Every structure is written in C-alpha cells, then in structure tokens.
Fold these 2 entries.
Entry 1:
Amino acid sequence: MPDLTTTLGRLRLANPIILASGTVGYGREYASLIDYSTVGAIVTKTITREARAGNAPPRLKETPGGLLNAIGLENVGVDRFLSEKLREAATVPSALIASVAGGSVDEYAELTRAVASREEIDAIELNISCPNVERARRPVWDDPEAVGTIVRAARNATEKTLLLKLSPNTADIVSVAEAGEEAGADALVVANTLTGMRIDVEARKPSLGNATGGLSGRALLPVNLANVWKITGAVSIPIVGSGGIADPDDALEYILAGAAAVQVGTALFADPGAPGRIAAGLADYMQRHDIESIEECTGLARKEKEREWQRTTAG
Amino acid sequence: MSIDPKNCLFTLEVDRRFPKPLPGQFVQVASSTELTLRRPFSVAGASRPGEIELLVELRGKGTRSFAETHEGATVSILGPMGNTFSEPSTGEIAVLVAGGIGVAGLRYLAQELSEEGRRLIILVGARTREALLLGNLLPSATEDGRIRLEFSTDDGSAGHWGTVCELLDSELEALEADRIASPRLYCCGPPAMIREAAAIASAREIPCEVLLEEIMACGTGACRGCVVMTKHGYRTVCSDGPVFDAAELVFEEAPNA
C-alpha cells in the first residue's frame, strides 16, 4: 500500500486530503454521508469572536463549472463553538483544523489562543480571505504587511500548526505568501474563492443577496493551480492546494505543481464520496508509477519544467 | 411519465437500505455530471416499498437533464433528508393548499392522510386549466365527502376563478360556520402564495405548516446556503426544514405592498 501520509508543520496527516472550511460545517452534519476515515483532516466552518447571522439570502448561485456563495461567515461565535460544537467536531476521526477570522490583529491572536488551547484541535487555519464580509477598497489579503502582522500575532499565540489561507483576489499573491512565511506560518492554503457575481435579468438584480460572492468549483482549478505554481517557486513551507478538486487527477495536478496536501470542498456537494475516491485514485497512481510516498510527488511537474528551462538556457 | 409539457412524474426504484421517507422529506438528485450541485426534490410518493416518486417541473438545466434520463437508467440520490409535517389531531381536518408544482411537496402527505382515513380538503391552484392535470395525481374526492378536491385558476378556465388563497379563505369561512372540525393547514407553492396563506392562517389563528424550497448545496445543514429568516434567526431549509411552522417565519415586505 503506497504511503499517503504527509506533513504540515507539526501536523502529520494520514492522507493529503483535507475537507475545506465552510463546506462540512463542524463535521457532524455530514457524518452519515462522508467516510471520514478516507480524510486526512477537516477544517471547521470559520469561527469569529461574536456569533454572525451571515448574509441575506439567496446565498448560493450555481454557474457553469462552479458555484457562487455568499454565506457571510455565519457561525455560532467562539464561545458556543468551544462549549457545544467542538464536542461534535471532535467525534470526527480525522485531524481537526479550526478556521478563525478576526476583525483585528488582536482578535486573530485571541481566537487563535482560544481554539489552540483545546487538545481536540490539531491546527489553526487563519482565514484572511473571505470575500463575503470584506468591505474595504484594499482588503487585508491584498496587503502583505497587514497579513504579516496577523500571522505574527497568531504565531505568538500558539505553537500548533498554523495555516494561512490566501486569496486569489490579488495581483501579487506571491508577496502575500512570502509575508506569511516570513511571519511564521507553517503552511499556506492556496487559495480561497475568487470574487464573482451573476445577475437575474428578469428581476434585474444580482442573483446573490450580497450581490457578489466567491466562486468555487471546477472553474477555479486553473486559477488556483497557477497560484500554487507561482508560490512554490518562492516559499519553502508546505502548500495546500485548493480550488475545484473533484477527481484524483485534479488533486495530482496540485501536488505535482508543488502542493503537499489538497483541500476538497464544493465537490462534496455533488459527491460526498469524493474524498475516498480521490484517496483511492492517488494510491492507484502511485502504484502505477512505482512511487512509495505521496511526498515524492510534490513539485514533480515544477522540477520537470525547471530541467527543461535549464536545458533551454544552456542550449 | 409526462403529466403535461412542463411536469414529469418519475418513479425511482431504490435500494433496500434506503429508508422509507416521511411526507415533506426530500432527496438530492445528481441529475447531470455537468452540474456542480445536486437538485433537491420533494418525495412526491413512497407508498410502494422500494419505490419513490418525484414530481418535477422542468424549469432549468438540472430539471431538464433529469427529465432526459432514459427509462432504466441509474441515478444517484441522497436522502431522505429534512423533517416532516406534524400530524393532524383527531378533531382536526387537514387542509392542503398547493400552488402549481407545490403539489409535489404535498402529494405524499395527501396519500398518507387519505390512507389513514383522515378528513381531507385539498386545494390546488394554477394559472390555467392545463396545470390542473397535476390534480389527477392526488387522491380522488370521495362521495362521502371525507376527501374533497377543489381547484382554482388565475384565468378562470377551470374550478374557481381566482387565487388558491382566495379559495382557501372561503373554505375556511365555511368550515368555521359548520364548527365540526378545526382546520390544520399544510401549504406548498410559490413564495407569494406561502406568504398569503401564512397571513390567512395567522388572522384566523389556525395552525399552518409550510414546505419551503430553496437552492441547496450540501443538504445537511453544513454549508448554511439555503437559509430562511425565522423569529429565531436564519434557519436552513435543508436540515431545520423544509417544513416550517408558518408562524415562525419572518417574511420580507412584498415588493408591491
């Protein structure tokens, strides 16, 4: 049996498949449909300090090759998460990553400290990239300095593995990635959803209650794959590829581009069996190519391309 | 089976492990691999073991690609999902109010209640007489008046001329006059109809449950995508519903009110 284990900071995962924040709630909701033994980790719905009601509906709009969502970080708030939801989430047999989003640097530190103090939580994902709550002209995810400050504050609050979830809604994702690494993130999640919208022509208004939303699903794969490609050349911490992964080959593309792990989200809605199918597909690929450990696959396409570039330069 | 140009009734053979659905519950159908989301459909019948029926209005890509599924094909369904209606008590008469394809959400309930020998008034509203073909799928009216079936059309081409809520109001007026049974309402239909039925129920202080439809992603309560506003904040149609007590719902102001 090929070795699917992979490492993010101090966190050792049984396999590189992580279920993305916002798509599985706190894990329990999907317990009868998802076989969690096929999953390396799940990421909780993002937790904020205060409970959030979320955006006005409609919150979902399907679009060719993808899904627009504008949930607006609806969640019970950190206190109720710790007192109620964590118990449910902890029944999931895979590793548990808590996603947090703060309204300030202090809040990120406070939330990180609060969730990291619980032994059920194995790692923390800093969500700096939700497109549905930000109102600033220059959002935080677009500002390497601001991102560095948040990560540093969170880093000082915990020794547990710290993941930073980047946004594709920026012209220079590499600088943000570098700032995150420099500030002490253990891994980068590349990346969140891409801002998008649709309009209902009969009603003459945006399809989503929030007007704009985040695009996920297959349409996002080439965008975030290219982001992984760009970032792996610039940082040395592990990367978690995310965006449009529904099949084993999708996950492999991210891994070959340089990801150590992947997140699966939107694909669960059509097929809760997707994680198991992808894990089996990875194992099958490794057997066919005589690869013992999935970690050997990370960045193979980049290495291949670099060799090609070198030959071209040399010639 | 095609009911009319717009609506189809599907019979799905389900695995033995598939639990018997309750009225009001829905299934999530993977109608096409081209689509990102499954499509939720109310269980429109499950009276025969090993079978469920879905009544589908051909509206968009999801429903159309499902309709093109040829006989004998295998489709993936998840479910049954969601909650169910509360049962009418002994002294109550069930009044079912369906607007158009809302028949899909109430047909199974109507069948079960009819099977149990309950008193039943079924009101079906539609734009024109063609849409009333849906009514043929419901339990027939009985001669003893235990089950009554009444129609309304917006254009007056069949049944009562007017909306189904106007019909409802006059039926309730008549029931109130004869004081034999107190009504309990069950409604499914377009948002404006739901809102009006809820207002009628509230004014007459009658218990009223509504089956809501929303665009859904997960179907399990995880993604928070299909919310409706209630007196207790947002609730998901998929896991807190799809059946809600009408008195709990907070309706938006009607656009032209």
Entry 2:
Amino acid sequence: MTSSDAPLKTPKTAAHSYDAIVIGAGHNGLAAAAKLGRSGRRVLVLEAANAPGGAARGREFAPGFRSAGLAHLVNRLDPEVARDLGIALAATPGPAMPTAVLDGEREPAVLRGAYGETIDGVTADEAAAFSRLRDKLVFQAGVLKRFLRRPPPQLGAIGIGDISTLMAAGFGIIRKGRAEGRDFLRMLLMNVADVADEYLDDDRLKGLLAFDATLGIHLGPRSPTSLLGLYYRLTGEVDGKAGGQFIPEGGMAAVAPAFLKAAETAGVTIRCGARVGRILADRGRAGGVVLADGSELTAPVVVSAIHPQATFLQLVDAAETGTGFLRSIRHVRSAGNVAKLDLALERMPNFSGLPGRDHAGRIVIARSMTHVENAFNPAKYGEFSPDPVMEIVLPSLADSTLAPDGACTLSALVQYAPYKLKAGWETGKPAFLKIVIDILERHAPGIGATVVAANLSTPTDIETEYNLPGGHWHHGELQADQLLINRPTGTASGYATPIEGLYLASAGAHPGGGISGLAGWNAARHILAGGSR
Amino acid sequence: MNALTKPANATDARRAARSHILTPRLETPFHPRLAALDEVNDWYNWAGYKAPHALFDEELEYFAIRSTAALFDISPMVKYRIAGADAERYLNRLTLRDVRKLPVGRVHYTAWCDDDGHVLDDGTLFRLGEQEFRLCCQERHLSWLLDSAFGFTVEIHEETEAIAGVALQGPTSYAVLAEAGFAGVERLKPFDIATFAHDGGTVTISRTGFTGDLGYELFVPRQTALSLWDRLWTAGDGHGIRAIGYAALNRTRIEAGFIVANADFVTAEGALRADRVRLPDEIGLDWLVDPDKPNFNGRRAVLDARRNQTLRHVLVGLEIEGNVPAEHAIVYHRGKREAGLVTAAIWSPTAKRNIAIASLTRPYGTRFVDDLWVEIYAMRELKYQKMMKRAKIVPRPFVKLARRTATPPGLR
C-alpha cells in the first residue's frame, strides 16, 4: 500500500486514470474514499506522509515510546458512518470512560457514564443541578445534530430535504413545549459561563464545562457564543449516549487502521508518500492532480480531504478561482490555540486524590470558569497562558505497546497556546513546557522525576507535522461565523467548490473537526447524489 | 511643513498628517493651463479632482471635437501600472478579454467582474511591454487588484497622481501632433501605442479616445505635463485647437455609443441595492467575454446566466422622434408597460437625430423590440410638458466616422 517510488512523468493511461482521487488519507479522506469505493468507483487516495491516518497517525516521539497522534480519545464517531462503512471501533466492555476534574485542593469531581450521568465528589444537590443542565443541553444539542449528517442548505437552492430538516428542527424545538423552545433560542448564542452560572455552584463542574466548550476554539468561557462549542461536543455520542467518550480496544492506534480497512474493503487504492503538488483545473473544471514528483493522475472527481486553505492556497492555481473566493478562503480563521504534550514516563503517574482506576479516564485540570477565562486572556494578545488548563489521558493504559514494560505515556491537550505567539515559539516552547510540567507536578507529585522524554507540539509544530495551516485541528475555527453555510466559506459550503469536480471533505468542511467521519462521508454522499453546487 | 523638522507635539503631527483636508479637490497637473483658459468657472468633481464641465461654451467645445481639435484633461482617470513575470496571466484572470492576444504596443477596451459576474468597471488596458501594462478606468480598484494578485508574481502600483494624461481629439488632431514634431505618429493605427521624446523624457501616445473621432491620448510624468500642453497648444494654433470640458466630450461619447461606469450602469462595488449590479451581457459588453480563454473572474456566473437564460437586462441604442433629449426618461412598451430607463440622451448635432442609450428589462429589447415609447418630462417655466415619443432600437455607434480609423490619418 505504501510506495514512495512512483514512476516519473507517467503517460495518460488507464493505470493513471481514476473515477475519483482523494487527497489526504486522514480519517475523513478514508471515509470519503470508502463511501465512493463502495459505489463501484475506482478510487485512489493520495497521502503525503509515509503512513495513512492524518492527525490520527502514530509516531515514535522517544525511543520506545509512541504517541497515537493528535487525538487521544474518541467522542463523536458517528454511528451511522461507522455502520455504513463497517468501521469497528468500540469501547472495551465495562464502565464508560470517566472524566475527573482536578482543582488541586479538593478531591476530584469524577463524572461517570456519558458526560456525568452520575458524579462523584460533589454534593447531591449539585449533581442533580448538573443533571438538569446536562439534560437541557443534550436536548438542545439534539436539535442541532440533525444538521450534521447532511450538507448545509445552499442559499438560493434550498431543496425539499433542507426544508424537511429545518421543519424537523422546528418541531424538535417545540417538542417539549413552548417554554423549552424559547429557552433554546435564548441560549443558542450565549456564553457557557452565564449558562453554567444559572445552574451550578461547584467551580470544578463549571471549569469542566468551560474547558469542554472552548477546547480547540479561540474563545474564553465568557466570550459570546462560547456555548456552541459545548453543543458541538454534546452532538457526539457513544453507544447511543450523548457526550460519551472512549478509547477503542487496542488504543487510539486502532483508529487509523479501522478507517483504512473500510477503504481497502471498498476496493480503494491508497498510496502513501505521494504528495500532491498541484490540482489540475482548466476553465473551472478539475481534471486530476500532479504529484510532487511530476507524474500526472487524472480523474473527473477530486476530493480534497485536507485543510481548505492548503487546498486552495497551495494546490490550486490562483487563476482557476475567483478573487472574491480566494479572499474568503484566505480569511478563514484557522490559528490553532492548543498544544499537544506527549510525555514518556518511567512509570504510571499518580494524580492526587484520584482513584487508581480513574487514571484510565480523562483528567481535566481546570479549577473554575475563571481559571479557564484567565488562561484565555493572554491568548488574545499573542501570549500563552502562564496558568494553562488541560485535558490528560494516559494512552499506554489502553495500549501497552505504546511504552516499554512498566513505563507509561501521558498525552495532554493544553490551552491556550496561540499559533501566532508574539515572542515566537522557538523561545516560547521551552518556557511553556516548563510551565506545563510544573502544573503536572503539582497535581501528580513526583511525576517530573519520572519524565524520560517530553515532546510538546505547539500549533506551529502541528502545522508542520500534519500540514494543517495554523495548526488548527478543526481546519478552521469552529465558531458561529464559520459554521454550516459558511464552512469554510459561502460558495464552498456544500462540499462542492467553485471548481467543478473539486470537492472539500476535511474537517474544514461541514460539520467540522473531531473523529466523526462525517465531513468525508457527507462529501462522498453529496458526490454520489450528483455533486452539484 | 518641512519634512525635516519634527512636529512639536502629537497634536501637530496629527494635523500635519491630515493636511489633505485643506484641499478637498485636487488639481490636475494641467490645472494652471485650464484655469487660465477658463471663462465660465464651471467645475465639477471627477474622482476627487477639479475638472471643467465646460471652459467657454459647451456647444462650441463640442464642435471643436468634431470640426478641429480638442484637448481634454484625462489626468483624473484612475491608472494602475501592473508589471511582473505573471502580469499577463494575472490580467487574464482579472479581465474578460484574452490578454494573450494583446500584443506589446497595443491597447484594448475591456471590463472586469467580481466572482458573481457583476461588472466592477470597464476600462482600457495598455500593453507597454511583454510584462508591463497600464490599466485605466473610472473607479478605484487597488484593493481588488491587490487581492487578485495572491498567487501571482506581479507588482501593482497606483499611478493616477504620478501620470498626467490628455486626450487630443478631432479631425485635425493628427495635424497638431505632426506640427508638434511627433514624427512617425502617422503610422499609429487605432489602438496602437508608441513613445516619443519629450522634454528630456518620453511621452506615450496611443491612438485611442472616447469620442468616436480621430484622436489620441498622451501620457507623461506629471513633471512634464505643462510642457506637453504648451507644445500641443502652440502646434495647434493653426489647427483650431481648443481646450474642452466634460459636457462636450459626453455628447461625443454618446454619439459613439460608449458607456460610462456609474452613469449607464452601476459598478458592482458601488451598488448599494442588490438588484443594481449588472452582468457584462446586460450592459452590452457580451462581446468582451471570451469563454475559450483560461479561467477569469465571473466566468462561471456569466456562462451559467447565458445557459440558464437568467440575464435580466439589455443595453440598447434608441432613436427617438422629435428633438427633445430623453435623458433619464422611462421607456414603455406599447405606451403602458414599463420596459426600462434611458441612461444617456442627446440631440446629436452630427447625426442630426435624437439619440439615447437605454437599459431595458428583458424580454423588452430582446424579444419585444417594437412599439417602444419614451416618456419625456420637459420642464417649461415651472410646468412639466409631458411627451410620449416613439423610440426605435438602432445599432450603436450612432455616428461612425471614416477618419477615426483611416491610416495614415488626414491632416484636416
């Protein structure tokens, strides 16, 4: 499947002509390819790296220690996509993966079940209040969810399907009565801080909601519309339960192979080490690609499952798109704000007050809403948080092959770490790493002495490693102005682009990032349905 | 303020930085000559410049264009210098016509659109070298041009202020140039460009104009503007040269059937109302669109509109009975159904006809071409005299002069 020794200057023969070429073997590219392949089309996936998986591509970050990539848990794999493509990723049977919130003082608050069906470490009243809020948010997220599995409505060409979805959403809103409907419209564009304050007292729970609402988004909990991020999180489901999360059997390293298998089963050819140099287009019609080595491959359908900016600013000749379109693509906000830390540890760390089995869960360090807000403030001015918030997972607990016997790996998503750091990441990185390790030391005393190797990927590192402009794993900010009919930008929001035959299928397309498979699957279904703009 | 003396404090610095508000109307490089010749003090604002509407008499100025030679200051015209390895490719994506077919030393009339195919402006593109162009137009487009440059190796400079331009138009215009010593100018065919020595530098002369007559446009750095004016003025002494204002020029451009941005159509970036924008085919510029050349801004929208027959307007020439100009009159079909609007109209002294340019809403002007009427309101001593006049669609130009294209041109 991998071949970096592609022949040079290939003639136009059947061997170099396909029904569809997918650029990028990330999970969305593979999902799109699988869906297209299952329709009987000859599909080729081209991947620049030497292995498929995209941001879920594993790598050795220290001798003997591996990281499974950017994502360290699954919380929104779409069940319809998984069923349709035969992607067998499931949680290990047993209790759901918990989330523990650490504030460094009290015992951890541990949310069990799907997003805190029960909570340890808080009062019964607080748990009941959280349950009321959770039910409300899950209901509201459910209204929005129906928009995720279909292309956004195209203004000027609203179809019957769009109207029925909109009507279904309308009925969904008033299903629980007028008061619930009104509350939904009231809350939709609120900030998560005000909503949490309405329901909760416990700072740890508020801190968690603030963290989950803003992770990967350039917003603080008090920024307007920050609740959308939490809705997005809660549109994800695991085993039919909203807000769940899991690490599949075999660990996160099983994710890429599962999508790869779905594509290969569908008869898709996958070539790794085959970097696309240019997308061929003439007078507004795509016709194939030219690889970096100069060989030409033709197909009437080209599906770009990489960042929309990488697609249009690097691969498509500017002359083939309009000035206005290119301007809007250049204006897509895609500056990442999260750093990924991979730690190689001599042994398993021990987080204070956290029961041993909960170390296999998700651990969030966020003292309060204010903590998250204060962590965000410097990011507005191009500085990293001196007191960041983070989400931690110990991947080697689920996949023992990631670390040598007895040793352990730790993966953390740390924010805020702005892509455009004023001081530059060259000097910023060691300083930020020290801050993060110090925080870990406070919550897991002794951890610092067991660090064998530390690998911090700043947004600039993520940009380079995964060819992600801005190092943004959503391929563009997931905010109100870049959603639905504006994702990534108006005239390319329905997977089709102004260039006929060229489609977008990455997280930069609707509905956005996270391992859901929806962007790729939706794009492929749109192509199979005729693919009109 | 002397650039070398530092402002005393922040307030002075701010005042110095906004000194432009003291001269709200700029003066063109030719202004001293125009001001000296001016008899009627009838100025208007052309793109921020003080420009003459008329200098002595609109009627006589018109006949200077058609009978002798007229000098018209075109310095306020917006000018961009576009140069670089990708200049041709860049302009081919920007504009409607195929720039690959424009040889060095030639000019072509063209237009450019936004992504939706709506016309941003029209203008003339001068190919000064293999990789060097000048784009002249009505409106300012620097941000659009710069944004369009993404992905191209090209440099764009606004040179409106740095370059002075003057149009020399009329049957004796060649005689004036010959008298002024521009040897070889007789070889210029319409839309040709050549450079000549002038005042220690050069002058670029193109056989172009906005009058439908024999004529030339001359461009020089602003420093040599006055010496160029004087050279032409002296040479034109025996050839009836006159300086003219826009009112006279406007009459000739209507006779020639030329359209003016934001007079005969609203430019896409200037339109406030969503239905005022126009596709090229809706303002008579369909002939500029080249579907066979590489992709260009608006291509898909224009071709889609043609295929789906969603074009909504059409620009036509009208000949109207009587002799009262029908400016901004409403056009009716069968005298009652509103069909469009007259955007420009005059009594043409040369054609001896009452002519107009009108924008009609399709199918009027395409399927329904007969039984058109215009409703003219003529103010006669505080009372409108309402006239319903029969109008006939006629081809443009309304006035076609053999001397416009004759090469070598005549001396009188």
